[in-house]
Design a protein that fits this description.
Layout (H helix, E strand, L loop, with lengths): L1 H31 L1 H10 L3 H6 L31 E2 L1 E2 L5 E8 L6 H10 L5 E4 L1 H6 L1 H9 L3 E4 L12 H19 L5 E2 L8 H9 L3 E3 L3 E2 L8 H11 L5 E5 L7 H14 L3 E3 L1 H5 L4 E2 L4
Parallel strand pairs: 1-7, 3-4, 3-9, 3-10, 4-5, 6-7, 8-9
Antiparallel strand pairs: 2-11
Helix pairs in contact: 4-10, 7-8, 9-10
Bound molecules: zinc ion.
Length: 288
């Protein structure tokens, strides 16, 4: 009996040995996989530091810091602060007019001219690559007192992307916008307005608030300037965030804009930037 037990033990030994070997190999593979290495490097840079410091050119001489990522805080879906902002709850007749720009240099100039004539400051959500391509237009926005915000890097639905991709898209746009405008944006309108809880969390980790809209001009559909004007004026309400576009595809925006502005003024509305609007009441995550 004892002899048989000993034989079993002898048989088990190589099995244990093979298992230990396999475990060692998977560990080694995990540490050396390129994807993991990038993720480890990125999260070793403190977010705060990354966003608050002026953009510096990456140099090859910078040593790569390799350490294990700190465990992420567990998502808290009940966190009331973690919302996409559609409007602000205020009885005051005040609204924020916002423009998204992703491409083109023909429409932004006329839009800026009209806003200047009306003495209106707006919030412009800029795609990073647009600001890089047209830094003179991006700087003009700053010079004329408009607020610079982010419209992300690639124009992709962030809710369909991995957390690490979302993070990288926001950081890349942030660095491009800082470089092009000298501003440090803290508001983002995600491309196509697409977001989920993860996107909201990543945005907040990077010191961003996610801004949607409560009044959609649908100007990008080019429904005619009358339709654009009526959509805005029929739906405007105190605390509204109004969505318009100043990309080159939105050719009807400049012709509709003067009457949008005068119509809002006639109805007693004052126009401010989104950041100013956020000071005037609690942010709401619903349109109404
Ligand atoms: Zn867009």
């Amino acid at each position: 009996m004892k002899k048989r037990f000993f034989q079993y033990c002898l048989l088990l030994l190589p099995v244990l040995f093979i298992l230990a070997g396999l475990w060692f190999l998977t560990e080694l593979d995990f540490k050396n996989s390129p994807g993991q290495k990038i993720a480890v490097n990125k999260s070793s840079v403190p977010e705060q530091e990354l966003l608050n410091q002026p953009v510096r050119e990456k140099t090859a001489s910078q040593p790569a810091v390799i350490s294990r990522p700190a465990p992420r805080p567990k998502p808290d879906s009940t966190d009331p602060g973690l919302i996409a902002i559609y409007r602000v709850d205020t009885p005051e007749k005040v609204v924020a007019l916002t423009f998204d720009i992703s491409w083109g240099a023909r429409v932004p100039g006329p839009v800026m001219d009209i806003l200047r004539e009306h003495g209106v400051k707006s919030t412009f959500f800029l795609s990073g690559p647009w600001a890089v391509k047209y830094p003179e237009l991006a700087r003009r926005l700053v010079q004329e007192g408009h607020e610079i915000a982010s419209h992300g890097h690639r124009h992709i639905d962030l809710d369909k992307e991995a957390r690490s991709t979302v993070r990288q898209e926001i950081i890349t746009a942030h660095q491009d916008l800082q470089k092009a405008t000298g501003q440090t944006p803290g508001l983002i309108r995600t491309p196509n307005g697409a977001y989920n809880q993860m996107v909201l969390q990543v945005a907040r980790e990077l010191n961003y608030r996610v801004i949607q809209w409560s009044v959609d001009s649908l100007d990008w559909k080019k429904p005619g300037q009358e339709a654009i004007i009526q959509r805005v004026l029929d739906n405007v309400h105190p605390g509204a965030i109004i969505l318009m576009h100043a990309s080159d595809t939105c050719t009807q925006t400049p012709s509709a804009l003067p009457r949008v502005l005068s119509g809002l003024k006639e109805r007693g509305y004052r126009l401010v930037t989104v950041s100013e609007l956020l000071q005037m009441g609690p942010a709401k995550n619903t349109k109404y």
